[in-house]
Design a protein that fits this description.
The chain is of the alpha+beta class and 312 residues long. The chain has helices at residues 6-15, 26-49, 65-72, 88-94, 97-107, 143-151, 166-170, 291-308, and strands at residues 17-20, 111-113, 118-122, 131-134, 178-182, 194-195, 225-226, 234-237, 243-245, 254-263, 276-279.
């Protein structure tokens, strides 16, 4: 079994991130790149058939084609961003033994892959894909959950306040390792990530703070770190480590995938975006081992939402 070295685990615990250089051979990611490229082609043909774009732009490559499509039909961006795409090659990365070995060393043998995995085409000079300094859990839980997670305030504590949402609050209190995996080389010009090493041990940045370097007072002594990466690298991050994605000022798309995992014995963080049990000793028969099995889960949830009218 692989996983983190003792030094890497110590860095993850103390600094909140590990740059895993060469975790994959570039050839291991090429099938996923090809799968994304094929999805771009499907979007192009659909948009062209509807008359929304002027050309198929099939003379463009992986680095530019989707940007040309979005220039003509901005709504096409939503057809690929996020967790919309789910093909066999992406499932193969979500369930890859190299990632699961690392995650098991952090959360234990019951590994649930969250459905909140994201394909991120960061287009050149396209502000929608630019993110302020943030923690990943901030978008799924209210600020009060951080107070309780960071300082251990119970429901009866006089310093505790705000609404208490049990299912959502449970999730930030457990380890939730996140991998950010670029599908093209990334640097400061095209929007590589910046992280704040050690920031996961402190109060998170306020939500209204957009500018790099503008932190909550508790973070003033910490120094941001720019993390350029090559294809085959992965950035492992603690769910509470602050990070930012600056604008893409290059001529090409910064394609990446991010993946989150949690303890399979704990409350599932997102029902609307269903994940799957990726590894288990207690429930080995429930482990989803192929793309078709995961697609069935996604289809059942989508059908239930459509028929029931329940919003969740």
């Amino acid at each position: 079994m692989g996983g983190l070295t003792a030094e890497q685990k110590r860095q993850y615990d103390e600094l909140g991130y590990v740059h895993l250089e060469g975790l994959f051979e570039p050839a291991e990611l090429q099938p996923l790149i090809d799968e994304v490229d094929a999805a771009v082609d499907r979007v192009a043909r659909s948009c062209r058939a509807d008359g929304r774009i002027r050309s198929l732009y099939d003379g463009e490559g992986f680095a530019t084609r989707f940007a040309r499509i979005v220039e003509d039909a901005e709504e096409a961006y939503d057809e690929l961003v996020g967790s919309t795409l789910m093909g066999p090659e992406l499932f193969g990365i979500l369930s890859h033994v190299k990632l699961l070995d690392i995650v098991e060393g952090i959360i234990g043998p019951e590994v649930h892959c969250e459905g909140r995995h994201r394909l991120r085409p960061k287009l050149p000079n396209y502000g929608v894909a630019d993110f302020r300094w943030h923690e990943d859990t901030a978008y799924a839980a209210r600020r009060i959950t951080y107070v309780r997670q960071q300082y251990g305030l119970g429901a009866a504590d006089p310093n505790a306040g705000g609404r208490f949402m049990s299912r959502i609050v449970a999730a930030p209190q457990m380890p939730e390792p996140n991998f950010w995996i670029p599908l093209v080389p990334v640097d400061e010009r095209n929007g590589c990530l910046h992280v704040l090493p050690g920031g996961h041990m402190h109060t998170p940045p306020y939500e209204e703070q957009w500018e790099p370097g503008a932190f909550a007072a508790e973070l003033d002594d910490l120094e941001p770190l720019v993390v350029p990466m090559d294809v085959g690298d992965a950035l492992l991050m603690h769910q509470h480590v602050p990070h930012v994605s600056p604008p893409n000022r290059s001529d090409g798309i910064r394609w990446s995938v991010d993946i989150r995992y949690q303890d399979g014995r704990r409350p599932v963080k997102s029902v609307r975006e269903p994940g799957f049990l990726a590894r288990s000793k207690e429930r080995a028969g429930d482990v989803v081992t192929d793309h078709a099995g995961y697609q069935r889960i996604r289809d059942v949830v989508a059908e239930f939402r459509a028929k029931s009218g329940i919003r969740f």
